[in-house]
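Record 1 of the preview.
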Amino acid sequence: MTQEEKTTQLKKLEALVLFQKDCLNGEDWDDYDKAEDEIKKLEKEIINIEEKE
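->
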C-alpha cells in the first residue's frame, strides 16, 4: 500500500471519530453505533496493512 493510500485510510478514521463525537453530543445513538462498527473495521484494516509491511 502506498503512503497516499495509508494517509487516506487515516483521514477516513479521523472523519469517523469526529462524526462519532457529533453523534455522542447529539445523543444519536444509532449513528454512533454504526460509526463505531466502521471505526473498528477501519482500525483492523490499518493494523493489517502495517503488519504486512
